[in-house]
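Handout, section B. The chain below has 281 residues.
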Amino acid sequence: MTIKKIIPILILLFVYQTNNAQIVDVSIFGQQFLPSEIILNNGDTISGYTKDFTAPKALELRTGFEFRSIEEQLRLTSTKFKFKREINGEVENLDIADIKAIKFIGNNNTIKYEKLKLKTINRNAEVVDLERTVMIPLIQEGKINLYGMEVLECSSGCELYYVLVYIKKPNDEFAYIPFDINRFNFNAVSMDNKFMKAFEEVGSDCPEFLAYIEKREEILEYNYNHKKLDNEYGRFEQMRKEKLKQFPKGPEKRKLSRQLDVEFCLLPYNILINQYSSLCK
């Protein structure tokens, strides 16, 4: 499946789910101190326990209107945390200005949040500095990193509908938002242009990748036929069902189902990331 086919499908889902929607965070963090590692701006790492870190790993869509930015709704702009070097040790107050990343260490998985300065693309394909610093989970690490959160719809059992994604090279100062909920409009071609422009900015250090992007833009002439989009998504669902048939009902099957859905949502990003990785040294 190519970018030409995938992006319209995701836009269709995006339009349907975000129309008249309100964001509600699904946080994995309670009020207790949790095992963690703090990576400071100078590169040093301190281990201990963190409390009052409110950024979620996933979010839920509910009916309603909210006029604040999604980062503000999710409290990703929160700047204060509490930290102990020992579980019974003295409490220290941490500020986002002093740290580069937080890694929470669990029994089954580790979640890393990195501090990102955000830029986005407006409807005229111009870069806009949001002058906003947030903590976002790292989804996938590589020459271009993917950050973001899973977006759930939980009216009758929670299902993944898309992934809210931010992109950045590991040593870059700014992350870009290819599909910006805060600046969403119903012009699908404009959405495509924003998506490609975000990758153009992130990959601007590689002339070969920029040439690839320019070529891709020349052939991004989409036919937004809902029947065709439904057929493409139907083929994905069929593949998904075939893989899931191998597992009985239970947590492992639900985990695989979520992973497959995430992979589908990340496909248009990974097509371009793989091109960058192969073209750029």
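Note. The CA atoms of residues 81 and 159 lie 31 Å apart. Compare this with the example in section A.
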